[in-house]
């Protein structure tokens, strides 16, 4: 069974798209996060839900 950990990022209305794209790209490249869901709310708030796979190391023995 695959397990994930999740991270939620909120971006206020005045945040520029370039800044949002750069932030998401940095999380993807350096933190190995992938975009799970992106939402745009009526007030202009953007919320990005990121996830990454949890890798469990099994003991040899």
Give the topology:
Layout: E1 4-11, H1 17-31, E2 34-40, E3 46-53
Antiparallel strand pairs: 1-3, 2-3
Protein described:
The protein is built from 1 helix and 3 strands, in the order E-H-E-E. It is an alpha+beta fold and 61 residues long. The protein has one domain. Strands 1-3-2 form a 3-stranded antiparallel β-sheet, with helices on one face. The two termini are 22 Å apart.
Shape: elongated
Q: Ends: how far apart? A: 22 Å
Q: Please state how the strands of the largest beta sheet are arranged side by side.
A: 1-3-2
Our count of helices gives 1
In terms of quaternary structure, the protein is: single chain
* Overall SS class: alpha+beta
State which percent range the strand residues make up.
Answer: 35-45%
Offer a few descriptive terms.
three-stranded antiparallel beta sheet, single chain, 61 residues, 1 helix, alpha+beta
Concise account of the structure shown:
25% of the residues lie in helices and 38% in strands. It has one helix and three strands; from the N terminus they run E-H-E-E.
